[in-house]
Amino acid sequence: MEDTFDVVVVGARCAGSPLATLLARQGLDVAIVERATFPKDTLSTHIFQAPAINFLRRLGVLDAVLETGARPYSEVRLRQEDLQIRFEIDQRPGDAGGFMSVRRFVLDPILLNAATDAGADAFTATNVTGLVYDGGRVAGVKVRSNGQDRRLMAKLVVGADGRNSSVGQLAGARKYNVLPGERFGYWGYFENADPELMGSLVFHRWDGRFVIAMPTDAGLYLVIVLPALRFLPEFRADREAAYMAHMRACEPVAEVLRDGQRVGKMLGMVKFETFFRESAGPGWALVRDAGHFKDPAPGQGISDAFRQAEALAPVITGAIGSAPGALDAALGNWAQWRDRDAAEIYWLAADFGAATPTPKVIVEATRLLEREGRVSDLGNVLQHRRRPSTVVTPPVLVKAARVAMRRPGADRREIMRELRELIVTDTRRRRLNRKPEYVPNAEHRDAGETEVPDEVAA
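-> structure tokens emitted (458 positions)
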């Protein structure tokens, strides 16, 4: 059996469904292929920022999201080692708030419904088993559902199928600038949180511990713990007890949940790596986690998915009727934009997720920004509205180092060492942005029909 579309999107979550919606609204014939049957949960920080809230409004689904009980919040309670501050996220005209959280098994069906309402055809409970090639370029996907095989042919196949992207693997896309994760994470939800205390995003990182928390939909309170790997034996011995101990070690969260009880299933991620992946080739493209996965510590994944989908949609609609070479060139330009857009936040996320303590120079720089009334600039970094390099600039770091060295008991040599390491690391990262370090694929298949085992199919 064979069907033909303009675009096949593999993956129906935060990148795939919005992309399909935008394409279908422009009159394209779009198919969405999704392995799961919704509603189904998935690993995610479940947090997104003001630009993502605004995108949901433009997509026409914000009212449906608000009906889940989720609400936007703008206060951040930040901790970096011994420094604790509170600040409000700057609001721009039209912003509904700084942050929101919605559980993925609630959010993802809303996004998929928008796609099908726009006219996209959804194939759920369907695995991708291979790519179809025509003259060296991808021309469709082979799928299997209920034991039946079929082909979905298209001018373009977009992989929005997560970190282990089947489309990416089958197309032979190489990873680059890969980093090992230095933490692990567990996500849990609580009821009976104190409504008078819960209206903030808690973002506390200290002594190898990392706790992120805020209200989510249905009146629940989300708590994410991201401990350094040295804590892993505690979690393996008694996951529930270790999770609760880490949650209670964060004072504002412990106060909010004084009478709270954990409910539902706890999700966890013990081992991961972060990466960029080649995200465009003849007849194919990759979006969000399929093409780029950053450390989850700053909670950027959902916002990244929306931003990339919204940027990719007009590229596709503008070039899908062109010659294949013109389409491929347009997608290649989009992939280069994605790298430029994501690079600085990628490295910042790696710093957030590092197991080592926050450098004293960085803590002092944050304190300096607060004293100068510029701490909201850090919020704009988390909102992807300011580049980190425009906020924590070399003059800020030098000034922070000088202040840190004047503190009683300061180790001047250690502070100077930190400053040198920050400069060397930044220089190396800038070089990697220009000349990435690629990881060779074990096997690169670029002709004929390719297959992937069912257990890793999308």
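Residues 73-102+182-271 form a domain with the D-Amino Acid Oxidase; Chain A, domain 2 fold (CATH 3.30.9.100).
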